[in-house]
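Human:
I keep going back and forth on a fold encoding question. Comparing notes only helps if you start from a blank page. Show me how you would write down a chain together with its backbone fold. Write it directly below this note and I will take it from there.

Assistant:
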Amino acid sequence: MLNLKQEILKVLEYAVWAPSAENNQPWLFRVGENELQIFFDPQRELLFEPHHMFTFLSIGALVKNIKIAALCLGLQVKVRYIFHDNLVAKLSFEPGDKRDHDLFPYIKTRVTNRKRYFSKPIADQILKKLSIQKDNIAVKIFQDKTIIRRIAYLVMRTEKIRFEIKSTHEELYHNLRFTKEEEERKRDGLYIKTLELGLLGELVLKILRYWEIQNIINKLRLNILLSIPSYLLIRSSPCVGILCSTQTDSMSYIRAGEVWQEVWLELARNNLYLHPFGAPPLFITALETGENSFNEGQQRSLGKIKEEFSALIGEGQKMVMIFRIGYAPPPSAKSLRRDLRVKV
């Protein structure tokens, strides 16, 4: 007789390979005989995260993995969203027919690649498949070099602000893992080798972990130099995508997460890589909601950046994520995952 609880645990082994902000893995689980409850872990959210946007984006990607894995492992799954306290959803399972899914083999191999991408163009049929429109969620793909350069500039301007804020500086270093031993022990956060900085870049990053030094850089107005690598990486990429939503409620971010994961897995299936940039959507949303610690100058800058992005993605669209895509050598390292956090 099929042990559904054990089968659900097998599904979760695939589910947790969903992407999350700085690999914070903001989820907890409770497993019953035929039911799975998904909670978000507030202790693992970003310091300021309006509407829990990246947490629910990550959980949406997690649910997408669950749906794909359950199908391939011979389970039927029904999802009911709760959004009560920290409980996000309840999923019920029952035996079903095993079926193949084109994206299943790529759930565990999907990876962020922060290396410079080749200029090789991406086939139109692939880009067409990535240009998804589902309900109030859309993926917009840009190939025009002028537009890509402008997006690169706007990302650079936003990341400059990130280095100016002490709390976001502290959060970055809280989530960085500087040694392999630390990465293996904690199995979360960003291992420094995944950032593809090279030895000099890693040295600079280690020096700047002290806010006093970072603050001197900021006062000398040299912090823009720290954002130039992102500008160059985006500018040299053959395509840039923006994940959008017309709404900013919890369910919209869940839907966006499902679409986001579908795009990423489809890219992996075609031997393509993706590199996300979360600062612009996060900071612009924080500006709109007032959940931020921006000074007047930063608010003015973000207001202008918001206007330019709105002109790109269209009136009424809210930016959820920016990403570059392309062909590249394999990444130097891949982020790990924690053991399953199952509540009893």
User: Anything to note?
Assistant: The mean pLDDT is 95. DSSP finds twelve helices and twelve strands in the chain. The chain has two domains: 4-109+338-343, 124-326.
